[in-house]
Amino acid sequence: MADVEIAMSAGAKRRGISFQRALPYLLSLPALLVCIGILIPFVTAIIYSLQRYNLAFPDSRAFIWFGNFVSLAKDPAFWHTVVVSLEYTALTVGVELLLGLGIALLLEKRNWVNDAISVLLILPLMVAPAIAALMWKLMTNPNFGVLSYLVSLAGVQDFKWGSSPDSAMFTVVLVDTWVYTPFITILLLAGLRALPKQPFEAAELDGVPRTFVFFRITLPMLTPYILTASLFRMLDSMQQFDIIYSMTQGGPGDTLTVFQVQAYLEAFSFSNIGRSAALVIVLWAITYALSTVFIKNWLKLRARAHGAT
Amino acid sequence: MSSRKQKDLIEAYYQNKIGRRELIQRMAKIGVGAAATGFLLNATATRTLAAGGPDFKKFKGKSIKLLMNKHPYLDALVKNLDNFKSMTGLNVTYDVFPEDVYFDKVTTALASKGSQYDAFMTGAYQTWKYGPARQIVDLNQFIKDPKVTSASYNWNDVTTGLRASDAWDGKAGSELGGPGAKQWAIPWGFELNNIAYNKRILGELGIEPPKNLPDLIEKAAKVSAAGKGYYGVGVRGSRSWATIHPGFLSAYANYGQKDFVVKGGKLKPAMNTKESKEFHKMWIDMIQRGGPKNWPTYTWYEVGNDLGAGNSAMIFDADILGYFQNSGTKEAGNLVYLPFAANPSADKPTPNVWIWSLAMSQFSKMKEAAWFFIQWATGTENCTFGAVNADLVDPVRDSVWKVPEFQTRLEKSYPGYLNQFQKSIGQSKIYFTPQQLFPEFTTDWAAMLQQMYAKQIPVDEGLDKLAAGLERKLREVGI
Amino acid sequence: MAYLEVRGVAKSFGKKKLLDGLSLEVEQGECVVVFGPSGCGKTVLLRIIAGVLEPDRGEVWIGGKSVMNVGPEARGVAMAFQNFALYPHMDAFENIASPLRARSRPEEEIKQRVHEIAGLLRIDHVLDHLPKQLSNGQKQRTSLARSLVHGPSVLMLDDPLRNVDAKIRYEMRLELPRVFRKFHSTVLYVTQDYKEALALGDRIGVLMDGHFEQVDTPAAIYGSPRNRRVASLFGDPPINLFPIRPERGGDGAVHAQIGGQRVALGPRAAELAGRDCVLGVRPEDVAFGFDQAEGGIPVELAAVTPFNVRTVTLLKAPDATEILASRPEDNSLAAARGHRKGWARIDLDRALFFDAASGARL
Amino acid sequence: MSKGLLRRVIRGGLLLVVVLFFLFPMFWVLLMSFQTNQDILRTPPSLTFTPTISNYVALISGEIQTSVGTLPVYYMKNLWNSAFLSACAVAMSLVLGVPAAYAFARFKFRLGEDIAFTLLSFRFAPPILVLLPLQLYFQDIGLYDTYLGLVWVYQLITLPLILWIVRGYFEDISPDIEHAYRLDGHSWFRSMWKIAIPLARPGIAAAGLLAFIFAWNSFIFALVLGSSDVQPVTVGSLAFMTASGIQYGTIAASLVLSVIPTLVLALYTQRYLVEGLSLGAVKG
């Protein structure tokens, strides 16, 4: 408790009280300003979202307040988009978190094998999702695809991967998992190795069962890292585009019409800027809400973690 | 060096003192290859364009910038670009982007009203957005102006259907190339949709080439049923307009079906007529029994890969797609091209076309110079060069198709290609109803086909749903 | 004026008022021990003086100047942290050298002074170790060396012996005064161990409820605590406290009931007659014997604990009042088992009287 | 004992599965990069082929052979663009982000959390939302088609990542260590520079690496905000899908090449990653 407080006004110094007070701002504002600069367009986009604005109909451009949002709310396709996006996010983040944590635990011990693996595992992350999707599309091709081939050897004939409404979601989640699990693994591995050793040694001595150690010591201490990792994954998954678009363009039918795919089509193919902006604003609002929850818990956990000391 | 000799020879050729074959032989003697000869010839030929009136040197030393799509047609053009430079003294720079992202680039470049690009490659469909958006220029003003257009440009040499397809008055539903139509772009190279088949496979199975759609469906099914690892017919199925415009719309049109009809000045979806429903049933049936297993993710390159690798016996897609699969692939040399009238009661094919055209940016600061480029690029000389010396496979000018070298080249290694072209070109044009919502409704259409294919929705119901949805969208924008 | 002055410093965290207008004066070269129960704000006080924590109110003066506008690095204050706070990525040498580097001293001087202090604290053999390779004792000495190496004008030690084992604690207790003298620094020493406080402090400040109950020499703190709370903080076994109500008897002498026995309180209690107060008697001032003694209290011997050099005995008076007595170790009580009767005699000249209500000494 | 052995076996088995799942596709791509398009497009796919380096030759020499002669390839330029852009973007983010992260971790100041969150929220401003207006403004202020402009925009990707990850590591360092350093007579800046940053280095390395990768993989910004002179590898790789067919072999090779720089960086940072952050976690 005291420690946190102290941490927070650490190095307090009143030489030129103004300077002291200013210091944190001086440190953080450059970063803020740089981003603000870019975010001016963000405001413009918000204005777009309040207009009837289709490039192909320049004369009918007009300010219509929340017209775009209203028509979205009335459109079942939109609600479908919301559901699919959330579903996709939940699935990818969930799977990748479990997998990433598991792998991190497997690699926790330091030896050259694990070190080697932990580098190699980053490889998928280094492949641009667009290209990764292209390769997966080839590997899942019914004729040339090595995966389709292996699957058929395993006895599953004509698995349809991205081409069937039943397996499309599975396929894109699979690719997403392949690409992004390493992200979580890295962060959690770093986190695991950052944990203070004492409690574990103690538990070891007392012969505490591993499962108990994991759930009562490891997991709680790891939670801040888990939150950070899943926060960023959530942000990216909500906005996933490359993988889904390159694999199925949102199909089959409307199986995978997530936010970004819809927004992309509206803007780039349908030139319906207003509607696209509205879509993206909604997406932005959702991510904003979700991450606020994350951050709140994150800060709470940090506070507790430091209070403990 | 022997450059003087070369000039003399070419002069001689142009004054008909010697024939083309003789020219090429004698050029070869002094160490100039056929392609190079072609280039030199073109240099001279270009002078006829140059001689046609306009002061092409007007912008000497200035420069223009093009936005281009990575495409064999572009490669053909680039090979000959120096001729344009020397003709006009203009400096030409160009940005090339992969097709996968090309139109995103164009859309944003135009939407931001940037003046960085003067002219760019586009399809006719895209101009239905760019035109009404006032992002591109009506080129009639240039074509009809002798001060900027060479007498030898011979605009009417460009295939009628294609010229019309790039011209639209901007009113949804009105006829392409009709009265008052604006020439939004100039055709340059195109593709029409017919059948290409693998004679080895059909031979193996003792199957004759298909005569019409019902026949195609049965034969495709037969091929797939043969269980030899290959399937019947390759067509696109991805969730985009690309699925609608090749084979599908060509056959659809051949059955006399329309996407929209105009009622009281307003568009009305026409996909849910009885005939249309029958057609859709046939099409879906064809894919389910004789199509690729992953049809809903099939884009043009999967269709092409399968044909070239001998996984599909036939494709109903762009002729040039089959053309490029006939070299450097496993099945190279086995491919045959076939004019295809889907409707048994139709006597001629009615291929829908994709036209690579050149358009001019409204925001260009060098419009006249840009026109010079477009004029040269789509002119007889350059098209001939591309067709003869490169892969400008489907040039847009009737005269070019008559060039003997081009014909012999096609005949030699692309059996039936010339024939399928000649049988089809007369009826080759865009069969879509021009309108701003083209991408929207074609995407919805494709998505609906995918649902029908997956048996998520019966064809009839699906088409009614589709029509209703489109109806609503049309009302929203009031067209 | 004093070298280090803390003037009415207050600091609270949220609701919790930790320091409440506290003041303290420390002379040059003097060692003041800040003593108090844990969580009484000792550490916070040091941090405020160090300048790493801002007080809500009040000021800190060093060498006659207010240092409120001076950063920690410029106050000439050194501090040894309870958790040592060594730099994990620097070896012991660099840790110790840090203050000298900050003052950009020439390399050879740094070497020489680091080795000097390291030798003095007997860690010169581990100078090339990283903190994680050091034993607790070595860590503690390293942090101490770091705080001493540049001869700070004010040295603050935050319970430095808390995290080290008994042996080192004992050694250091003897060693530190020598070191302090050598560097002639003004020392502020925080501890919650009263023996440490008595052993090291020129003066002891007893910190309670956010202020100093008493600041005085060890002898005074022990011998004449300002109130019963201070009194009961010092001494092990703790002081005996008997609630009494002195009465003036017929003979004019003042008496009180202790353990059910009427005891004459002697002249010191003369003016206490008739008011409730508490009698504080340190165990060593209680004499126990088996023979009846004048003014003695009849007790029975409840327990005998040999307590290193002294024997502590728990005595029970008939009214169940418990009296602790300690006496030099001897074997006379070794045999004393079972509830032997005996007599306790209180040395009233050394007894302390507190007001029952306020607890203040009378 | 045998229980421990069993555990080791299981552990090894699981690791094997993991490695297979994550590395098989990479392995397959590597194989493809040494095959001709014909070999790749075989049914069923097979491992027997005569390796060719033509794909790499084409990429590196900048010339690709086609049926109608040789065509230029600008892949190496794309590769350089990616490397340069990502490196600059990450460098800038570190310079801006680490001090900010330090501020959020060490000082409680009004609006502190709000600023931190705002900075994060930039991460979820979807690109296509800002692209169109951004291009307008970039043209006005002359940043269109400049490295500077792109590096700036890339901050949207890299800065929040670095900021939030590094902040966590700073907070894990006991403030007392820095207090001690201050009391030794060092300024706040030196204590940040000599204590906080070295102790958080593993975290900074991890964050930097991840940021670099994300910058490396994004191409939509460069696509819209630049000419073909500044396009990254992703766009470069897509250039091998043209109407004349899709060159899987070349794409695979381009993918392999594009991974190398990042891999090298990863191997370098690995030192810090596996060093473990035990230093960072010195609690008070």
Provide a concise account of the structure shown.
The complex is a heterotetramer of chains A (309), B (479), C (362) and D (284). Chain B is of the alpha/beta class and 479 residues long. Chain B has two domains: 258 residues, Periplasmic binding protein-like II (D-Maltodextrin-Binding Protein, domain 2); 210 residues, 3-Layer(aba) Sandwich (D-Maltodextrin-Binding Protein, domain 2).
Written description of the protein model:
The complex is a heterotetramer of chains A (309), B (479), C (362) and D (284). Chain A is mostly helical and 309 residues long. Chain A has two domains: 1-39, no CATH class; 75-308, Orthogonal Bundle (MetI-like fold), CATH 1.10.3720.10. In chain A, 74% of the residues lie in helices and 1% in strands. Chain A has a two-stranded antiparallel ribbon. Chain B has 479 residues and is an alpha/beta fold. Chain B has two domains: 3-191 and 354-422, 3-Layer(aba) Sandwich (D-Maltodextrin-Binding Protein, domain 2); 192-352 and 429-477, 3-Layer(aba) Sandwich (D-Maltodextrin-Binding Protein, domain 2). In chain B, helix 4 links the parallel strand 1 and strand 2 (91-97). The N and C termini of chain B lie far apart (65 Å). The mean pLDDT of chain B is 91. Chain C is of the alpha+beta class. Chain C folds into two domains: 4-233, Rossmann fold (3-Layer(aba) Sandwich); 240-355, Nucleic acid-binding proteins (OB fold (Dihydrolipoamide Acetyltransferase, E2P)), CATH 2.40.50. Chain C contains eight helices and 21 strands. At the A-D interface, helix 1, helix 2, helix 4, helix 5 and helix 6 of A face helix 1, helix 4, helix 5, helix 6 and helix 7 of D.
Features:
heterotetramer; B: 479 residues; alpha/beta; D-Maltodextrin-Binding Protein, domain 2; 2 domains; two-stranded antiparallel ribbon; 12 strands; 14% strand; C: 362 residues; alpha+beta; Rossmann fold; OB fold (Dihydrolipoamide Acetyltransferase, E2P); six-stranded mixed beta sheet; five-stranded antiparallel beta sheet; elongated
What would you call the shape of chain B?
Answer: globular
> What is the CATH architecture annotation of the largest domain in chain A?
Orthogonal Bundle
Q: By helix and strand content of chain B, what is the structural category?
A: alpha/beta
SSE arrangement of chain A, N to C: HHEEHHHHHHHHHHHH
Number of helical runs of chain A?
A: 14
CATH architecture of the largest domain in chain B: 3-Layer(aba) Sandwich
Q: What's the assembly state of these chains?
A: heterotetramer
Question: In which order are the strands of the major sheet of chain A placed?
Answer: 1-2
Mean pLDDT of chain B: 91
Proportion of residues in β-strands of chain B: 5-15%
- The CA-CA distance between the termini of chain A, in Å, is 8 Å
Q: Identify the CATH class of the largest domain in chain A.
A: Mainly Alpha
The average pLDDT of chain A is 85
